[in-house]
Design a protein that fits this description.
Blueprint (H helix, E strand, L loop, with lengths): L6 H18 L3 H29 L2 E5 L8 E5 L1 H24 L9 H20 L3 H20 L4 H32 L4 H11 L4 H18 L9 H7 L2 H27 L1 H4 L4 H21 L4 H22 L2 H32 L15 H15 L5 H16 L3 H26 L15 H19 L1 H12 L1
Antiparallel strand pairs: 1-2
Helix pairs in contact: 1-2, 1-4, 2-3, 2-4, 3-4, 3-10, 3-14, 3-18, 3-19, 4-5, 4-10, 5-6, 5-10, 6-7, 6-8, 6-9, 7-10, 8-10, 9-10, 9-13, 10-13, 10-14, 12-13, 12-17, 13-14, 13-17, 14-15, 14-16, 14-18, 14-19, 15-17, 15-18, 16-17, 16-18
Family: Belongs to the CPA3 antiporters (TC 2.A.63) subunit D family.
Subcellular location: Cell membrane; Membrane
Protein name: Na(+)/H(+) antiporter subunit D
């Protein structure tokens, strides 16, 4: 069964190679089919691989002739296994939905290019998740950044070009800081493999106190920019709100999460808790995460366009993840990973339902969606389910996250964080619930297009599946957190 150990590498290669095939494709339908087949293959392998990891435990997988520390290797625990499954599942659902909608957002001639970029992006993100080599992470980051910019600018509108340039500039800044951090790590340890860096840095930490602090700062800011840590998030609202709906779903659900996962690996796998506790880095991440939870929601309240509300909501939800990371406890990190899973599924469903409403009405502003539930009842119901999860209603993953974050705060002795969680939840309700209530019970508004009344189950089936998974995730949260804990040991 050792062949299953190669599944993570196999799927990264499959997605990259299928991108080359997409380069030769001219027909939109063929491009959609190839992308769907490659991501379906990824989901199948990730499910088999998850069972393998649960039975056999963590493992290292060397790539190529040279073994570590000279060669590249993947390190797979139950966490990487879960993320493999998550990234494959969410991307497949989003691309399935896009097969019905992307033609309305971008030119037909650009569709093969779009799916090429999607496959490269998902392959790169999985590479970031799997690799145990810090420079290899950087390569995957750079490839993924260019692909992410591509799926925003592909819409070819003025606002997309402007948002892409802003995202590219900020991403390049973040990448530069990460590269400088890698250079400092190599200077101190002579290693690029994360496990070997950790062993070496323990031995030299007394000689490089100041350099370690600088390196930690470079990685925190660099990856903070890329994962939209408050206040380094200013590229996100424009990029996520102006992109086609499937792009917004991928960017918000998966792209920022991959960089947050890498930050966790840098802090806890490379440096380790004993070293980072000597510096105020975790405290700063905790404060910025808490501030993001509040400020992201406050900024969402003042938005008029529905996609910008959801985009700012991502800033707030990423704050929860950074708060968990900054706690510096096993429970805090476990819940941060759980929130990554819950938010990825929920936010994909939210962006796709909103994209569907915009596509069918031609409207973008929140006030224009009053009464839309009378015409698009299933769409608004799916949106409401995602919104309730964001607010933290019991049985949904948002509640499980917030409940466990509260327990982690008590365990840490940081009772003020419970107040931050409560305020953030209240603010979530202030901007999400009026959209749902006015959508169901408000007076119907005029729209730029004639709204065709219907259920549209075929187009919305991927979102229905995402929503069902969201409910399952809330119900099975305890077991999933136990699986995550297996990867932390």
């Amino acid at each position: 069964m050792d062949i299953i150990k190669s599944f993570p590498l196999l799927i990264v290669l499959t997605l990259f190679i299928s991108s080359f095939i997409l380069l030769l494709i001219k027909k939109a339908k063929a491009a959609k089919t190839i992308s769907l087949l490659s991501l379906s293959f990824a989901l199948l392998l990730s499910a088999i691989h998850m069972v393998f990891v649960l039975r056999g435990g963590s493992y290292y997988y060397s790539i190529g002739y040279f073994k570590s520390p000279f060669g590249i290797e993947f390190y797979i625990t139950s966490i990487e296994g879960i993320m493999f499954l998550l990234f494959s599942f969410v991307s497949l659902m989003v691309i399935w939905y896009s097969a019905y909608s992307i033609d309305k957002d971008i030119k037909e001639t650009h569709i093969p290019l779009y799916y090429l970029l999607i496959n490269i992006l998902i392959g790169s993100l999985l590479g970031v998740v799997f690799t145990n080599d810090i420079f290899n992470s950087y390569v995957f980051i750079e490839v993924g950044t260019l692909a992410a910019c591509g799926i925003i600018v592909v819409k070819d509108k003025k606002e997309n070009i402007k948002a892409t340039l802003k995202y590219l500039f900020m991403s390049c800044l973040g990448s530069g800081l990460i590269l400088m951090g890698i250079a400092f790590l190599y200077t101190m340890t002579g290693q690029l493999n994360m496990s070997y860096i950790h062993q070496s840095i323990i031995n030299v930490q007394e000689d490089y106190k100041r350099t370690i602090l600088i390196t930690l700062s470079l990685f925190t800011v660099g990856l903070g920019v890329k994962s939209a840590m408050f206040p380094m998030h200013n590229w996100l609202p424009d990029a996520h709100s102006s992109a086609p709906a499937p792009s917004s779903a991928i960017l918000s659900s998966l792209v920022v999460k991959a960089y947050a996962i890498l930050l966790i690996k840098v802090l806890y796998r490379i440096f380790g808790l004993d070293i980072i506790n000597q510096f105020p880095v975790l405290r700063i991440i905790l404060i910025l995460g808490s501030a993001g939870m509040i400020m992201g929601s406050v900024m969402a309240i003042f938005q008029k366009e529905i996609k910008r509300v959801i985009a700012y909501s991502t800033v707030a939800q990423m704050g929860y993840i950074f708060m968990g990371v900054g706690m510096g406890t096993e429970l805090g990190i476990s819940i941060a990973y759980f929130h990554i899973i819950g938010h990825a599924i929920t936010k994909a469903a939210l962006f796709l339902t909103v994209g569907f409403m915009i596509e069918h009405t031609g409207n973008k502003k929140i006030k224009d969606f009053h009464g839309i539930g009378k015409r698009l009842p299933l769409t608004l119901s799916l949106f409401t389910a995602g919104a309730l999860s964001m607010v933290g209603i019991p049985l949904l993953p948002g509640f499980a996250s917030k409940w466990n974050f509260a327990l982690a705060s008590i365990h840490k002795g940081e009772l003020t964080l419970i107040g931050v969680i409560l305020i953030s939840s209240l603010l979530n309700a202030v901007y999400y619930l009026p959209i749902a209530i006015n959508g169901f019970f408000g007076e119907e508004q005029e729209s730029e297009k004639e709204i065709i009344k219907g259920i549209f189950l075929k187009e919305l089936l991927p979102v229905v599946i995402l929503s069902l998974c969201m409910v399952y995730l809330g119900a099975a949260s305890e077991g999933i957190i136990e699986l995550i804990n297996m990867g932390l040991i």
